[in-house]
Structures are given as structure tokens and as C-alpha cells.
Amino acid sequence: MEKKEWYLEYEIQKNRPGLLGDISSLLGMLSINIVTINGVDEGRRGMLLLARSDEQIVRLELILRTMDTIQMTKLREPKLRDRMAVRHGRYIQRDADDKKTFRFIRDELGLLVDFMAELYKQDGHKLIGIRGLPRVGKTESIVAASVCANKKWLFVSSTLLKQTVRDKLIPDEYNENNLFIIDGVVSTQRSSDKHWQLVREIMRMPSIKVIEHPDIFVENTEYSIDDFDYIIELRHDPDEEITYDMLHKNTMFSGSDFGEFDF
């Protein structure tokens, strides 16, 4: 029988020497393998486990609930946030009201790249928006995550190296495994009808699409924020406000001055 992965997390109530050894021994006696283990936030420990049957996990849960040295907080099939927590030792910050919005600061670029790479590895259509002020690291994170996920990335619109606004793809680029990057500001400012026709073709493809400045993108298209599967916010610091006021005041996308902001 193929082994199944589980995520166990517990909060330490009495941090005494040998506690981790007790937990590990218990898992060994139940023939449950530890794949990864790490401290998760303060006073918590997370583990990715492999078990042959659900009965092993049921027995584990019953025993753990009798222990007064720990309080089990999670025992479930691992979610992406669980995997990230074990790998990096902390949870990704998620908006309390909008569960599909995840927040990062620039010091967490490594965590962000790892998170996006995991999203890129998923099959089928995914629409990911990324918000952030200029030079905070949006595009570099998108590209780095593409490399980590072994995905070929294509700029449909961008200002990373030079102004890019594409009106068509070559046949080989219509590949569902490719990752398409669209800059909502550049597309809005520099677009042609052919460009938008291409964007709509790409949006219909069962592939990963990453859109920088999703709020500007939806302002000028038939798409809405509800169409996005994930929204990522990247800031220089936690209190930074992501605003497009400067853009709206500056020619409303009508002239070349907009490019000076290098969004």
C-alpha cells in the first residue's frame, strides 16, 4: 500500500529534555516515518509524516491527546502552507478576511520564491496576481520561482530588461507548460488590440498566468479580482501601503511619462 503524507503540529506545554525523542519513539513504534521536522513559530513544532494506513494516524492522535507535555494543534493531510511552515519554520502571512491573499516583505524573498514555485508546479489553469511598489522585487521573484519550478517563462508585457509588449506568440510558445507573465500597467499603457487579443487567448489556456499589478489590470479589462486564484502582496516593510495614486495622477496611462515610474 502506498504511504500517505500527513502534517502534525503541536505546541509544547512543558519543554523538557527528551520530549522530541519521546514523540519520535512513539512514531517509530506506530511505524510512521518522519519526512521533515522543524520548529514552527514560537513554541511549536511541525512534522511531515508518512503512514501506510489511516488507522496508524488515528492511534497516534489518541495517544498524543493523552500527553500533557504537548497540545496537538494540527493533524491533517498537508496543505501548501503546512509544507512552507515546516520548510521555513514559520507560516506565510495570509489576509484575515481574504483567504487567497498572501503577504510578504522583501526580506522574505526566499520564502516567496519557494511559495510561488510550489504554485507553479500545480497542473492546469492558475491565475496569480502580485501587488507591490516599484523595485520591491516582484518580477525577479516571479522569474526565480519559474526557475525553481523548472518552468519556461514568457513575458507578454514587461519592463524588466526592456519595454516588452507582445502581439503574438510563435507556435511553440502556445504550450500549456509555459508560464506567462503580464504587467497590468504596461499592457494598459502600451497595448494594442492585437496585444489584448493575445492576452485573452493566454487567459483561456490551462496554464499558469502571473499578472503584476492585478488591480490596474482588472480596471481596464473584463476580468475581476474574483478571477484570481491567488493574490500576493510584496512590501518593503509590513506597514508599507501599496497604492497606485501616483500612477492615476500621472497622465492616466496616456503618455510616456508613466514609464518613468518603472513599475
From TrEMBL:
Residues 73-261 form the DUF3388 domain. Pfam families: DUF3388. This is YmfK family protein. It comes from Jeotgalibacillus haloalkalitolerans.
